[in-house]
Each structure stands twice: as structure tokens, then as C-alpha cells.
Write a structure and sequence with these properties.
17% of the residues lie in helices and 26% in strands. It is built from six helices and 14 strands. The strands form four sheets. It has a six-stranded mixed sheet. A four-stranded mixed sheet has the order 1-12-13-4. The N and C termini lie far apart (73 Å).
Length: 332
């Protein structure tokens, strides 16, 4: 009688690992970085900013009266909050079926995924170049993204006053391959002139810009007489090769670097920017994130189709004063 072999067995159960794997579901560094402030009461938010002017310091002639008077002007900044929503649904039978990693709670798994995606949506909008806009009946409210806040030209909607827009020299728009230490130094010096003190920034950059910065201190096999190496390839211990620049320091300021894959994406469909090399070097003290409504789930009434609901949130990222902050938006 032939022996039963594994290949000839009938009725074998399918072996599926009891986990569901996702890549970086919570990678939203900007949501963690920005301080959280009070709850706005209207979709249109308004706040104030001011700039200390350059002033004369000549001596006053004794015995002369005060004949002219001056004041520090304030500027209004405005922006609309943004309504985010992510629906989810699971049919009745799909939720009753036991799934590896989810058990008999597919609805719970889909709800959790929707909550994580809402966080990504908010992160993506903050790191976009989108201008703010009001609800038109066909297009919804949008918050202004960092790329628009740090423009040197007037925005189309609720424009930032020219007195507090960053200088053109704060913004790099050249080719990614040409972005050098001197490029960043020039930006820092411009921001230093605006702030009148050394800058302390956080650089949120894409992987392509970070790779360029990582190579700034490398030695390549051939060094010309006009480009002498400053350091060598960095080696930690005997076995680890490290090629990371996490902090940049110059006399006029410094920046710590963090990566995000959500910079300058197409917010209409979430696809990545086709031209790599984007980053915002921000002063975190000049920003906050306000929730009119924090991300929360609403279950919809049963209609026989299964469990369903949506996650929604209303938020606005506010820049108190764009001066002294930098932007890299590389050209092709």
C-alpha cells in the first residue's frame, strides 16, 4: 500500500501568517513637531504679526522738543481651516469571516487604517505648496501649506503682507545637483538679516535633498586644487560606515534635519512630486497646529450593507511670521 505523502494530502488548510504588514503607517513627523494650540471657532482664522524696523541711533540735540511720533505696525495673517474625511465600510459577511491578523473584526481593522490615513492626509496638506481657499460649493476649504506660507510673492487668497514675506534669497529654486553648502549658507545669511539674530531651524526635507546634504562632507577619489577635501568618509568603529548629516551649523544659524515623504505631493491624488529636491527649514516657534475637530470616528446607521462610518477632522496649520525661514524647491 503506497504511503500518504504531503503532496497528495486533501483538505489542507491554507497557511497565512497571523499578521498584516503595512509600511510606515504612522510616519507623520510634522504632526509631532508642531505645537498644538487652542480650538478655533470659525473656519477663517486671523492672527497678528509684527516686525521691528531698522532704526536710527543718532544722538538727540539737547533742549529740542519731540516733533515726530512713530509706532510699530502690526500685520494680519489669515487662513482657512481644512476639512478632512476618510470613509470606511465592511460588508456584513466580510466582518463575520475570520481573517488572519484581524480575526472576526475586519471593521475594526479598517477603522484603524482610516484613522492613520487621516493623519497622513493632514501631514501631506501641511507640507504642500497649496494656497488656502474657501468652500465654493464645488471645492472644499483648504489650509495653506508650508510651501505657500514661505513664498516670496503674494498668495492668491488672503495674501501675506509684503512686509513679512521671506526674501527671494531665502528660497532656492535651482537644480538639485547644484545645491551646495554655499547655497544653504546664502539662504541662512538672508534669513539672519531678516531676523537680526542667528537662526535655529528644523529642516523637513525629502530623501533626494537629504542625500545631497549627506554628501557635503564626503571626499571623492579625485580632489582638484580648487576643491580640497575637508574631511574623510566617516567611519564609526571598525565595521560601520556612516554617511549622515543630521545637523548643519554656520555662524548665521543652524538646522537639524528630518525626513518626510509627504513634502510637496500632489494633494489631488497623493502622488509624489515629479521633481525631487524639496524642503522647508522652519522655526517651530513660529508655527502651530489647531484642531477645530480632532480626528474621530462616526459610525453610520445600519442599512443592511454592513458596518460603515467615516473618520474626519478639521485643522489649520498657522505660521505666525514667515520671516527668517527658508525653502528649497528645486527645478528640473
Amino acid at each position: 500500500m503506497p504511503a500518504m505523502t504531503e503532496l497528495a494530502q486533501v483538505g489542507k488548510r491554507q497557511e497565512i501568517a497571523d499578521q498584516i504588514f503595512n509600511i510606515q503607517p504612522e510616519a507623520t513627523p510634522m504632526l509631532s513637531l508642531l505645537k498644538k494650540s487652542g480650538m478655533p471657532k470659525q473656519m477663517l482664522s486671523t492672527w497678528q504679526s509684527e516686525v521691528y524696523p531698522d532704526i536710527a541711533s543718532t544722538g538727540v540735540v539737547d533742549g529740542t522738543p519731540v516733533t515726530t511720533y512713530e509706532r510699530i505696525d502690526r500685520y494680519l495673517l489669515q487662513g482657512y481651516a481644512h476639512y478632512f474625511r476618510r470613509p470606511w465600510a465592511v460588508t456584513t459577511l466580510a466582518n463575520l469571516t475570520e481573517i488572519a491578523g484581524a480575526g472576526r473584526n475586519e471593521a475594526g481593522h479598517q477603522l484603524k487604517a482610516a484613522m492613520l490615513l487621516i493623519k497622513r492626509m493632514i501631514e501631506q496638506q501641511i507640507l504642500s505648496g497649496d494656497d488656502t481657499q474657501a468652500d465654493s460649493g464645488s471645492v472644499g476649504y483648504e489650509m495653506r501649506g508650508m510651501g505657500s506660507w514661505l513664498d516670496d510673492s503674494a498668495q492668491a487668497v488672503l495674501p501675506v503682507d509684503a512686509a513679512i514675506r521671506p526674501a527671494t534669497a531665502n528660497i532656492y529654486t535651482g537644480a538639485l545637483a547644484s545645491y551646495t553648502e554655499n547655497s544653504f549658507r546664502t539662504q541662512l545669511e538672508s534669513g539672519y538679516t531678516e531676523k537680526k539674530s542667528a537662526l535655529n531651524l528644523v529642516g523637513v526635507v525629502d530623501k533626494d535633498l537629504k542625500a545631497i546634504v549627506d554628501d557635503w562632507t564626503n571626499v571623492y577619489p579625485v580632489a582638484s586644487s580648487t576643491s580640497q577635501p575637508r574631511t574623510v568618509y566617516r567611519v564609526e568603529g571598525n565595521e560601520t560606515y556612516s554617511n549622515i548629516v543630521s545637523q548643519i551649523k554656520f555662524s548665521t544659524g543652524e538646522a537639524s534635519l528630518m525626513l518626510s515623504e509627504f513634502i510637496d505631493r500632489d494633494t489631488s491624488d497623493g502622488t509624489a512630486d515629479t521633481i525631487p529636491g524639496n524642503g522647508y527649514f522652519i522655526d517651530p516657534k513660529m508655527w502651530d497646529l489647531c484642531y477645530m475637530s480632532k480626528p474621530a470616528n462616526t459610525n453610520l446607521p445600519p442599512d443592511g450593507s454592513g458596518r460603515r462610518g467615516y473618520i474626519d477632522a478639521v485643522a489649520i496649520a498657522r505660521c505666525f511670521n514667515p520671516l527668517g525661514q527658508l525653502k528649497v524647491d528645486c527645478a528640473s
